[in-house]
Write a structure and sequence with these properties.
The chain is of the alpha+beta class. The chain folds into two domains: 124 residues, no CATH class; 109 residues, no CATH class. The strands form two sheets. A six-stranded antiparallel beta sheet has the order 7-4-3-2-1-8, covered by helices on one side. Helix 1 runs antiparallel to helix 2, helix 2 runs antiparallel to helix 4 and helix 5 packs across helix 6. The longest helix has 19 residues.
């Protein structure tokens, strides 16, 4: 297939036609589900003549996986039950454990990687370097954080109404600092002191103008990891720490930049 820009409809068509030689019932389930999910979504980048599929492919898959675990839409629930039957694991229907990134996350992500590589092999110029499961897992849980805390937990309103560009707080053992400026919003989760062995930090960035509450769907396109100075498990634990201990009253303007200073 020779095109200058590939869009999600190209992905749908490729998924519908994909028939790998060695496949399982789980693979069939995921191929069918991904095709249906992508076809039902509205992706703003699809209207952009410059942005192609490679710029938001990871977001498409992350949203699909998040929905498969959590959505109560009837057609998704049917796929969830089919997946559970094919996979044979009663743990599956529950939301994956944030702290341990359990089997569902890694298994499903690896399966999706394999499907994508096989499905889109005809798009020879696409760069698959983005398909790294550990980064995807961190991204997946940050997407949930955006849904639960940023959109539904009051964080966005505090940031938008703040008179300074930095807002943050301490939640459990983790400090969260956000910085809003020039159309971008940064989220930095960190523990410990810079320059020591116990320092961990991960920063996500997104466009502050492209986040809205789309009903039951996370709509923060363009969100992703910017800097990572931690391992995947600690990164997940920091996101979970803030989520579990979230109190919007403790999320305050950082006028004196005390949150930037480490312990």
């Amino acid at each position: 297939m020779e095109k200058s820009v590939y869009k999600t409809q190209d992905l749908v068509e490729a998924l519908r036609a994909y028939n790998p030689e060695h496949k399982t019932t789980v693979t069939d389930c995921l191929i069918d589900y991904l095709a249906d999910f992508v076809e039902k979504q509205d992706y703003p980048y699809d209207e952009d003549p410059v942005y192609g599929l490679e710029h938001y492919l990871d977001e498409v898959l992350l949203r699909a996986i998040t929905a498969l675990a959590n959505s109560d839409e009837e057609w998704v629930v049917a796929y969830r039950e089919r997946y559970k039957k094919d996979y044979g694991d009663d743990r599956y229907p529950g939301d994956p454990t944030l702290a341990s990134a359990d089997t569902f996350d890694f298994f499903t992500l690896h399966e999706c990687e394999n499907i994508l590589e096989g499905t889109l092999s005809q798009f020879e110029w696409l760069d698959f370097s983005m398909l790294h499961s550990e980064a995807w897992v961190l991204q997946l849980h940050f997407e949930r954080f955006l849904d639960q805390i940023h959109i539904r937990g009051g964080m966005r309103e505090v940031i938008n109404n703040a008179k300074v560009d930095r807002v943050g707080g301490v939640f459990g053992k983790t400090k969260l600092l956000t910085k809003n400026g020039m159309g971008r919003l940064l989220f930095t989760f960190h523990r410990g002191k810079v320059g020591t062995k116990n320092y961990h930090s991960i920063t996500f960035t997104m466009s502050n103008s492209k986040c809205d509450n789309g009903g039951n769907n996370v709509r923060c396109f363009g969100a992703g990891i910017q800097l990572c100075y931690t391992d995947v498990i600690t990164g997940l634990q920091m996101i979970k720490d803030v989520t579990d201990n979230w109190d919007v009253s403790k999320f305050v303007e950082d006028r004196n930049r005390h949150l930037v200073k480490t312990e």
